[in-house]
Fold each of these.
Amino acid sequence: MSQQRWSEACERNRDPILAVLRRYLQDRHRVLEIGSGTGQHAAYFAEHLPHLLWRASDHPEYLPGVAERLAEAALPNAPAPWPLQAELAPVPGLAPLPDAFERFDAVFSANTLHIMSWAHVQALFAGLPAVMAEGALLLVYGPFNYSGTYSSDSNRQFDAWLKARDPDSGIRDAEAVDALAAAQGLVLVEDVAMPANNRLRIWGR
């Protein structure tokens, strides 16, 4: 039985995201995707950006479905996904990391920050220096608040739904995320408005 999962949202947002990725990743070589989820983005972006090695990663329980999807795609630039997650102990960061690997010149993550607890968001950013090469880019897609204000009624409703399901989750304030990025030497390069009241925010080292 297939272990693949499906996200309609991934199908809707993949082309708007790809348009931005084409602008920023044309001179990149290795991308780490954190929180690959269904693997739909990994397969699609690896196919349409063949000059990149696209390394998917996620919590181990989601990897069988991601690996199955990538195996079906049979793309030479989309190797097997890594088991990787934000962990709070023994120190906040990303784990487990392979014993030896080449650092990435771009890191991409979509629809993850509002699913994680704030402590895990902090851990994710704390772990970035271990995987990012000098001059690397960080690209994060999803909904954001600005100055504690929702950008739309639909985002307000979505945030209420998230918190009802898990009180530790929720749409994050852009300013708070920028502060986490700055603590890791990352500077906001662009904040791109995307369909359905989402953003694609890009930071550089």
Amino acid sequence: MRFRTLLFIGLLAAQHVLAQESTAPTLSGSPAVTDAPGRGIQPGVSGHSGILPSLYMLDAQPIEQISPLVQRQMLNGTQSTLVKWTVKKGGVFPLHHHSNEQITWITEGRCEVYSQGKKFVMTAGTVLVIPPNTPHEFVCTEDTIDIDFFAPQRQDWIDGAPSIAASAH
């Protein structure tokens, strides 16, 4: 049993690394990005320190199958992580905590979030701010689209750690 668990975790980590290595390319050409001479420039900010932003299509990012009911698409910035979760009814993120602040925005569906002895019902349009190291769990009671923003970035996922949702099946 231990070998099967380690093998499963190893496969999830390998899948994560492959997905990160195959991040969809930035949008860099017309009509998404065009020249705008003199716009967006501040005097005193050097071109060496004012790095050009990167534009992506979130839906073009690789889809990671985290569990039978949970998929993830992810982008990492230099200081934060953005995730689109596509969760089928019954999808669960078991009780956990992490050192990152998490801002969760439900764009479709419904989830119940449990934290500190309280139940938070999230529906389309609601946003929940979860402070660092705060225990929380999610139960999606409908098919759900959840956009999460983490700061600082999820270094554990970058290093290949599986999502807590992988342990829910």
